Amino acid sequence: QVQFVESGGGLVQPGGSLRLSCAASGFTFSSFVMTWYRQAPGKERELVATITGGPAPSTNYADSVKGRFTISRDNLKKTLDLQMNSLIPEDTAVYYCNAGRNQPFFDSWGQGTQVTVSS
Prior knowledge:
Blueprint: E1 3-7, E2 10-12, E3 18-25, E4 34-39, E5 46-51, E6 59-61, E7 69-74, E8 79-84, E9 93-99, E10 113-117
Parallel strand pairs: 2-10
Antiparallel strand pairs: 1-3, 3-8, 4-5, 4-9, 5-6, 7-8, 9-10
């Protein structure tokens, strides 16, 4: 079955960096657009970044993270990464990965990884 396992979150000061990783299984990873989402307390889930499949993937970012976050993937390892730089308190959320471009393709979700940006 489809599974996502997110990792790499933690507590970081404003201006700091974190690198998140998502291990995916149960589907043909390389064929899917992959997406990072986040959900802050009391807020709806937000799309953060997407990356297409294939040999020359293209990326897209939410305006709120553009220029600070970088999404990447390793199709052999079936992993999806998110490099987050210049973190701000508004980035505090639980971060999840899933397949799909504008909405989650799979109903299955991982446990997410908590990112807290605070001094």
